[in-house]
Amino acid sequence: MDIFQNLYYGFSVGLQPSNIFYCFLGVLMGTLVGVLPGIGPVGAISILLPVTFRMDPVGAIIMLAGIYYGAQYGGSTTSILVNIPGEATSIVTCLDGHQMAKQGRAGPALGIAAFGSFIAGTLGIVGLMIFAVPLAKFGLKFGPPEYFGGILLD
After folding, report:
1. Nearest CA to 16 among 62, 71, 64?
2. Are 71 and 30 spatial neighbours (Cβ–Cβ below 8 Å)?
3. Phi, psi dihedral angles at 111 (to 5 degrees)
4. pLDDT tens digit string along 53-75?
């Protein structure tokens, strides 16, 4: 029952007009930076982080999440149109997307990439919501032996 209360609270904060605007702005800027080959989501966030310094914390986090998702999608644009992956996660998009663009079907390829990005992002967030609490409880049980084993295996 607690998860539904948290979802209600999250939606009530996230669906405020100012936060939706910050998300839209973040996705737009992230997509514009993500289109540049070689600059992935981490680079986009690093470049655009100073934009969020004077913002309220919730709006800044929402904007940074929008920048991340926009940059992640923006990398598929260069993969499809010019066969240059924007980051490592869009290498596979070069294989099928660029072939579709060569056949004159760049629009459907970009649409499929956007739709797939939306579906994967949604499923990832739902999975995170379901497994966050058990994973946090499991992570709090880690002690010195587990940290040593992690460092040794890394």
Report:
1. 62
2. yes
3. -65, -45
4. 999 999 999 999 999 999 888 88
Mean per-residue pLDDT over the chain, rounded: 89
Phi (first) and psi of residue 37, to 5 degrees = -65, 135
The one-letter amino acid at 105: R
Query: Residue 89: how many CA atoms within 13 Å on its side-chain side?
Result: 17
Q: Is 58 exposed, middle or buried (0-12, 13-18, 19+ CB in 10 A)?
A: middle
If you search the block for the tokens 């680079």, which residue do you land on?
43
For the chain, the three-class secondary structure string (H helix, E strand, C coil) is CHHHHHHHHHHHHHCCHHHHHHHHHHHHHHHHHHCCCCCCHHHHHHHHHHHHCCCCHHHHHHHHHHHHHHHHHHHHHHHHHHCCCCCHHHHHHHHHHHHHHHCCCHHHHHHHHHHHHHHHHHHHHHHHHHHHHHHHHHHCCCCHHHHHHHHHHC
58 contacts 16 by C-beta, under 8 angstroms: no
First to last CA, the chain: 38
Residue 76 near residue 113, CB atoms below 8 Å: yes
pTM > 0.85 = no
